[in-house]
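A student in our group prepared the protein record below, which I am reviewing. I have pasted the whole thing underneath without changing anything:
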Amino acid sequence: MSGKTKKSISKRFRITKNKILMRRPQHQDHLNAKESGGQQRKKRKNKRVGKGTANRLIESRLY
């Protein structure tokens, strides 16, 4: 059964070579001047999505 890719999901998440779903951290766009350096550094790296959420997203046609 083929279907269209959900673009809103495919823009927010990436699948790695080892089938791990990654996302960008939240609250990182602007208004970060009041945060400490450690918090800003933590937001630079991608976060791993949990297995349950990842399975739901992959089932909803994230190719």
Q: What stands out?
A: Residues 24 and 62 are 16 Å apart (CA to CA).
